[in-house]
Amino acid sequence: MNQNKLILFNCFKTLFSYFSNKNKKNNILSNAIRVDGNCICSLCGKKYSKHPFDYDFLSSECLGNYPYLNILCDGTRVKL
Question: At the N or C end, where does the chain have fewer CB atoms within 10 A?
Answer without folding.
Answer: N
